[in-house]
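Batch manifest, entry 17 of 40.
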Amino acid sequence: ETAQYAVVFRGSTLTSSGIEWTNLSYNNDDVMIPYEHPAGLYNSGETEARVHRGMWQPFAVLQPEIELFFAVLTGQPMKPEVLVGLVEAPPQVRAERIATIAAAVNAVHGSSPAQRLTRQLTSVIGQIEAGEKTAADFSLDQLIAASSRLESVLADLAAGGNEAGQAKRRSLELYITGHSLGGVLAQYCAITLQQLWTADRSFPPFALKVYAIGSPKIGNRPFVDLYNR
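Output type: structure tokens
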């Protein structure tokens, strides 16, 4: 079975009220900065790849949430550092990351497990901040599994125990698209996920399909060559 998802990035848009500056790139200059391979792996010549600083920074803000969403979605093991990061993050960032984890759980198991997990994570973080527990006392994987266990049992019962009802998702098909600045973000997202998931041997088979419309220049020639590969 193939699961299909779409990631859509938007740029500035012209509406009846004028230009919406939501998601507009800041520090938008021609300064080129090194492209960092997400898994730290480079082939010969790839270290010369450069991206536009003003275009890369907006994606860098979103990158942790995007990676986290698909890690939870596909059942990848959660490192202890993820929970530690939730505890140490500023309130707004913490809320966004909890929402990201819950959204991935919601996509697979529905809204009830996602709501349970949100409450559990909030409670766990509160206990850690109060000094009652430490991050080592909890497992994010176990919290995610516990939040969806009831729905999994009900689904198995509804399927009557047959193999078709118990089949697991075997591959992932992801459509990534964007316009203007969103087109740049879509291409940065695609190459980052492609390299990250390819390096992770445990990640399920995947296909990325990118549609960038009206995208500005995304990087220098070595980066474009890297992207096209």
